[in-house]
Design goal:
This protein has 227 residues and is of the alpha+beta class. The protein contains eight helices and eight strands.
């Protein structure tokens, strides 16, 4: 059953640290956590100290925070619930791809583990969410992916969009209008002069993407750079 001592705020902090840790590949700076959560550094620091006392994370001064085993277990449980709801809302209710993230964010905090696992069984144990992100197993394991952010491609390289991470409704709506979704073939053409946007081709269209947007688009490269 869902642990009653975990409120929505606690769960969002743990989930956010887990998502940022993948990107940072090191302790997550409190400033980055505060920015992602939309709170002040002071508020984030206070919550970090509270979660540290609960044994859910470790805080290394001047370095950042990392989840404890207990914190990681709770975070992956929330992420699993979130992605299962995204799959259900997309597949069964046929809701728009770009909107299910927001709906799932509301549902994940009110979902018992038994409900999450019932959803998983009903959906035949999906491995990825509609946005391409791996779904943690019931035991908390997350499959490693062989992809890189679009910003790390070289001009002339291309491949298949594998996932959008981290997700946000505003970002997904922006990408949906341009059909930049997992499974689409994308090619990185060039960076516009004077540190301009990335020029990419996808589905017969050319798009100018800012670096911040492009950093959320992960690609499995299947082409070598062309001369």
């Amino acid at each position: 059953m869902k642990h009653e001592s975990f409120n929505e705020s606690t769960e969002m902090y743990l989930k956010t640290i887990s998502e940022l840790a993948e990107k940072e590949a090191s302790p997550v700076p409190i400033s980055a956590l505060a920015e992602r959560m939309g709170v002040s550094n002071v508020s984030a620091t206070e919550m970090v100290h509270r979660l540290e006392k609960q044994g859910l994370l470790q805080h290394a001064p001047y370095k950042g925070v990392s989840l404890s085993d207990a914190g990681r277990q709770r975070a992956t449980s929330i992420i699993r619930s979130h992605h299962m709801w995204e799959c259900f809302l997309t597949k069964e209710l046929e809701l728009p791809w770009e909107l299910v993230h927001d709906f799932a964010c509301r549902l994940e905090h009110a979902t018992d583990t038994a409900v999450t696992e019932a959803l998983a069984a009903y959906l035949n144990q999906p491995q990825r969410c509609p946005h391409g992100n791996p779904i943690p197993s019931e035991g908390g394991e997350i499959a490693a992916l062989d992809d890189i952010p679009l910003t790390e491609l070289q001009p002339g390289q291309g491949g298949s969009i594998s996932r959008i991470s981290p997700e946000s409704t505003l970002l997904l709506e922006y990408l949906a209008t341009r059909q930049l979704k997992p499974g689409q073939i994308i090619r990185f053409n060039e960076v516009a002069p004077f540190n301009g946007p990335l020029m990419v081709s996808c589905a017969g269209e050319t798009h100018a993407l800012g670096f911040e947007v492009a950093a959320h688009i992960f690609v499995e490269i299947d082409e070598e750079p062309t001369e």
